[in-house]
Design brief:
six-stranded mixed β-sheet, alpha+beta, ten-stranded antiparallel β-sheet, 3 domains, globular
């Protein structure tokens, strides 16, 4: 039997309040079940025609022979040891209200029960580098390392495999729900099985096998803490707290290469044009926002091309806010409109690791990234602000320009060694901090370049540039003399590592390990950024209300 169950939140009652009224659950007569109090419900879907009918009907008269089909499901609510479970069958899972369930219940049970060498699959969502879901399945039982998951950058949503004790189940999978495959099982024996599950949920064994499991967890949209967290961030808006950071969620829905500027809409109070999403510009635009309006959800942001076309869908400002917030002795992060709970020791560890990365800002003294000046030069061209900045830097400092100079490692594999190479052996990788996707690319560029350092294609591009910048045809840049510098343009003053958002720090901490393992040094450098203030867009003049009479 395949058994799917949810654990309802602590304090839940054994009644239909955990079910969606829209599912119209119909209570059934129950037979007595030893050791549990139980209620049962039938869920009946709307009769509908099979989806394939219209395709077949084009060439065959099938519709007249087929009746509309109805999907059925069942939900069993069972109370055991003062906790209530929802066991679902068929489409019954649709009837369970997400607000009522204990998030991560199934994942924790599986993490405690699964055999370390018998893992079969996992589902993750990137939170540091992207927001895509990814499901990884192994062809045979294996270890967690075989899944090749970046545990600091990805949130583990689901885990599946086989337990250490086959008496529990033959296979199990867990996320919010728990799915058990049990041989020769009857629901008459459900009480003992629920006891096993509750005992597994209470264990802390997972910390030895999966110490990262609870270091990062998203809050479901129904979590009551979200409202309070939003209120705390709203108050920081009113205080013009410049520790709030803004960045575009990634990826853009449409052609990101055409992006030129943002427009912030305050409703009747007007629209503002922003060249970049720095705190001063955003707060300046919000000065006209009435006090009864919510800056997170009532303000809209549009990412636009030079001719005013959308390069992404219109989003609330909350989707662009990067915030770190403490609440009730816990740490939370807001990114791309999603709140995450982050374990305190994980935050401290990442901050400590990033603080140890050398900062070469003063030594390099990189020129200011002037947003307005770069934008004016971009008009009518296909160049990017980053490309112009790098070209100017190379021309003015005598650096070798490698931007777009690709090393071809194979028929379908290519990479940028770096953006620039200095006469001192710094390999500069340059990006503005206004988009999280850009910083992900920045880190990946350095990591991939370090990993392929020994390849012929990499060395050909690098050493050619090194000879150019040193003027010595016999010179060779060796690993010991090279240093990757992640140069990030930001309007925020002070040490670079203090102004970066937490998930960017996670990427940097992982990059430090990857690059130094290739026996190459890594450092940071701040590029000062000059961003013009928000420019209020004039209202369009309304046309005549009607014909004029003379």
């Amino acid at each position: 039997m395949r058994l799917t169950m949810y654990l309802l939140r602590d304090g839940s009652m054994l009644d239909a309040s955990a079910l969606r009224l829209s599912s119209a659950p119909r209570e059934l007569t129950m037979n007595a079940v030893d050791g549990v109090k139980a209620l049962s419900f039938l869920v009946e879907g709307e009769p509908k025609e099979p989806s394939w009918i219209s395709n077949v009907e084009v060439i065959a008269r099938v519709r007249e022979h087929v009746s509309d089909s109805t999907s059925y499901g069942a939900v069993l609510l069972m109370e055991r040891k003062e906790r209530v479970f929802a066991l679902t069958f068929g489409t019954g899972f649709h009837a369970v209200d997400p607000k009522a369930i204990e998030p991560g219940f199934g994942l924790r049970v599986v993490a405690n029960l699964i055999a370390s060498s018998r893992i079969r699959g996992a589902q993750t969502r990137g939170v540091a580098s992207n927001t895509r879901d990814q499901r990884t399945l192994l062809p045979a039982d294996g270890n967690f390392a075989d899944l090749d998951i970046q545990v600091d950058e990805d949130w583990l949503r689901q885990l599946s495999g086989k337990p250490e004790q086959v008496s529990v189940a033959t296979n199990l999978a867990g996320s919010d729900s728990l799915r058990l495959t049990i041989a020769d099982f009857s629901l008459r024996n459900i009480a003992a099985k629920l006891d096993e599950v509750l005992a597994a949920y209470a264990k802390e064994d997972f910390r030895a096998k999966f110490p990262f499991l609870d270091q990062l967890a998203p809050l479901p949209s129904t979590d009551p803490r979200i409202e309070k967290l939003d209120e705390l961030v709203q108050s920081r808006f009113r205080d013009r707290d410049d520790s709030l950071t803004f960045a575009a969620p990634d990826p853009f829905d449409r052609n990101e290469d055409l992006f030129d500027h943002y427009e912030i809409t305050l409703g009747y109070q007007g629209r503002y044009v922003l060249g970049d999403l720095d705190s001063a510009s955003v707060f300046g635009a919000l000065l006209d926002l009435p006090p009864d309006k919510d800056p997170l959800n009532d303000v809209r942001v549009e990412a636009l091309s030079e001719d005013g076309g959308h390069t992404d869908k219109v989003r609330p400002l909350k989707s662009y806010v990067l915030a770190e917030q403490d609440f009730e002795d816990e740490s939370f992060l807001l990114t791309a409109g999603q709140w995450f709970l982050v374990r305190h020791d994980f935050v401290a560890l990442v901050n400590e690791q990033v603080a140890r990365i050398p900062d070469l800002s003063e030594d390099l003294d990189l020129p200011t990234w002037d947003v307005a000046a770069l934008r004016s030069r971009l008009q009518g061209t296909k160049e990017t602000a980053e490309g112009l900045y790098n070209r100017d830097l190379a021309a003015n400092r005598g650096y070798a320009l490698l931007d777009k100079e690709l090393a071809y490692l194979g028929p379908h594999e290519k990479l940028e060694v770096s953006d620039l190479v200095t006469p001192s052996g710094e390999l500069l990788c340059v990006k503005a901090a206004s988009k999280s996707a850009a910083l992900s690319h920045l880190v990946a560029q350095a990591v991939n370049s370090a990993a392929t350092w020994g390849s012929k294609a990499h060395q050909t591009v690098l050493q050619t540039a090194w000879k150019e910048t040193t003027g010595d045809a016999s010179a060779e840049l060796k690993r010991d003399d090279a240093i990757f510098v992640l140069a990030i343009a930001t309007p925020k003053p002070g040490p670079l590592h203090e102004s970066l958002f937490f998930f960017t720090k996670v990427l940097l901490a992982n990059a430090l390990r990857s690059i130094t393992s290739a026996q190459i040094r890594v450092a940071l450098a701040r590029i000062p950024m000059d961003v013009p203030p928000a420019e209020k867009k004039p209202r369009k003049k309304r046309g005549s209300a009607g014909p004029s009479f003379k």
